[in-house]
Specification:
The complex is a heterodimer. Chain A has 13 helices and two strands. By secondary structure, chain A is an all-alpha fold. Chain A folds into two domains: 52 residues, no CATH class; 223 residues, MetI-like (MetI-like fold, Orthogonal Bundle). A two-stranded antiparallel ribbon of chain A has the order 1-2. Chain B is mainly α. Classes of the chains: A mainly alpha, B mainly alpha.
Chain lengths: 292, 278
Amino acid sequence: MDRDKFKFPNRILPYLLVLPQIVIVLIFIVYPTFESFRMSAYQADAFGHGRIFVGLENYIDLLTSSGYQQTIFVTLIFTLAVTFIGLALGLMISLLLNRKIKGLSFYRTALIWPYALSPAVVGAIWMFLFHPAYGVLTYISPVFLNWLERGSHALILLIVAAIWRNLGYNIAFYLAGLQNVPQNLLEAASIDGAGAIGRFRKIIFPLISPTTFFLFTMNLIYAFYQIFGLVHTVTKGGPGGATNVMVYSAYRDGVTHLMPGFSAAQSVIMFVIAVGLVYLQFKYAQRGVYYA
Amino acid sequence: MLDRLNAIIESNIFVHILLILLLIVMIFPVYYSFIVSSSGRAEIYDRPPTFTPGDQLMTNFYRVWHETDLPRALFNSTVFSLAVTFGKLIISLMTAYAIVFFDFKLAAPVFFLTLFTLMMPVPVRILSTYEVVASLGMIDTYQGLILPMIASATGTFLFRQIFKTIPNELAEATVIDGGGPFHYLFYVLLPLVKTNAAALFVILFIWTWNQYLWPLLITTSSEMRVVQLGIEGLIPGGGQLPDWSLIMPYVIAAMVPPLIIILGLQRYFVKGLIEPNK
């Protein structure tokens, strides 16, 4: 098919057109990624003058340290909770919105806008609302999140904030997916005696599974990387490492703790995960690669 | 039992009540930040809490404008976001144009190299990218903040998809009329992809405005700080009481530009989010 596509005869012009992208990709993205691999095999020497080659020692130290095992565990909990709870809520709300009721476009707009809020903004607001000492939600709701002192509470706060921020995004996609479910199919099922729950299980859920796969991948990527701003603003990885997710741990070990080899090894581990996420993305979400 | 559950779920009143509860959940956090922004420093701790606006709104915004780095941070965020967004749009448009409308050996390698960058977000190259930017003397500069960000796999992929669907006749007609590749790009292609470009603009602008790790790495001075980092800077560590009547106006200021974009260009935003997914 590509053979038949019209082509301009210019020889030099295409190279000039791709040059900026190639230069930036090679210098600022591809080279540093390979450099992460190289750095991960070194440690700074005791005097801070140079680097000593240590092979796989950084990886062994990492994977055997209880601190990093906790980091992996916390990342897993956070990512899965944000993805699964976020998708389930998004789907439920979209099902409610996807019918002919008054004020629908108003509701849609009102639900979608938090997508524009950054993790730092969302973090600041939620840490204030649930502040153990003076948070207004701590005061009016029965929920008490002592996120300053209790690790599990801090993790829950971050999960709630992250889900809240992405709910509109999930709803926007599910609503679009639901419009592709043929109305006459649902009516036919209704006549045959299928209730709302039956129609959902047998017709709607299978038909919107492409949207579910897409959102699943996008939410995984969001929860895995974008949490950084949330953690840095609110908990700084604490208390006691309970919110020290992989992205934050790699940053802190590299920039604050000045352990470049250790940080680079964590970057490489995240690279392996990134490859897996991109594979998922192209398998399930190839027509909407939208996380830039 | 199931029938009754179905009946409840299908009633419209139930839907409206649920929706209103949901709206409260979505709006309350931001509404309350606004309340705090309009209250005095101590009123925030009043119990029972007040949920109506106070009279300190102007005072608080005046204070945050003059006592914090907010004006500078907003300026930096605007420069950063606009430059990265337009940079990404232009560069990916050029790349996709070359790949689809020219015959050259590197077309496929360039495309796949660009796509591979999806696997290389900032977290997988934290220190090494910092070192590259440092070795070019670009730490704490706009160039250092902007240039490394303007490669775009998303944009290249999207524009390539669109270009591939454009019928040959348009290009052939341009050539017959004596037009070259630039004439074709500016007068034929660009008008055709305007809507897609606008949709991409919305998504890229919000994405860039909300970046955190990258500016944290590349900028060091307070003059270069973007608004996302300024929020954390106002929250003191070590159990000190933060001045929320100063922080919340700052937070509001940080969320307004992307909100204006998303609400003002909502048509394109929804289109950009959903249509490529079809």
